[in-house]
Prior knowledge:
This is DNA-binding FadR family transcriptional regulator. It comes from Rhizobium lentis. This protein is mainly alpha-helical. 63% of the residues lie in helices and 3% in strands. It contains eleven helices and two strands. The protein has helices at 3-6, 18-32, 44-51, 55-67, 100-124, 127-145, 151-163, 168-174, 184-187, 194-216, 220-245; strands spanning 71-74, 78-81. Helix 5 (100-124) packs antiparallel against helix 11 (220-245), helix 6 (127-145) packs antiparallel against helix 7 (151-163) and helix 6 (127-145) runs antiparallel to helix 10. The radius of gyration is 21 Å and the shape is elongated. Mean pLDDT is 82; it is low at 3-7.
Amino acid sequence: xxxxxxxxxxxxxxxPNLRSGLADTLMAQIESGDxxxxxxxxxxxxxxxxxxxxxxIVREALATLRAKGLITTHQGLxxxxxxxxxxxSFSIIPNDLRSIDEVLRVLELRIGVEYEAAxxxxxxxxxxxxxxxxxxxxxxxxxxxxxxxxAQEDYAFHRSILVxxxxxxxxxxxxxxxxxxxxxQWARLDKMTGLERxxxxxxxxxxxxxxxxxxRDGNEAAARRAIRSHLSKSAAxxxxxxxxxxxx
Length: 248
């Protein structure tokens, strides 16, 4: 690798998620044009030497870039920047959510999208939408009552809100999240006592019912407040978990 190639990399400080740090660095260099379409990436060994991270981290970062369509690999030749590296579609893949900080970033995005969607749903929902949301809410209640995570049911309920906006772009965007938007490994229900799980389930039911009630009643302002409160509280709970896991 030439000195010019070496200049593309800087040693990555030790962030909570090294893979994300390296992947973000490479993505930034591709998006800025420092790494050009068709350009061959340095070898794994060269990236390790330039960045100070392990081979495992390098391989996971490259796998993330491949999943996003930013690079291609050719056996025996190495990895190359895609000829058209600008992503045509947006997606969130499981590898993106390996740390609580990444989950929090997705929640920030969801707050922006769902805050507006909840308001529109309150104004535009039909009787069919209300019936669909009620059905999804009942399914979520049952999953929580059984002590489950309810990830798929939670996703289905929130998606039904976006469908009720009568703007298909909202639901199409939400489909890029899927039920990985809150990965099960971060819910930590298995670490809770029976009483804590009951309180968690009751809180989740209360927050979701408040959202549904406001949309059903056509109360735009209340719907926005309820969805923001729900997602903000979720973010606060993840922040507490992060801080408890990584005390300063």
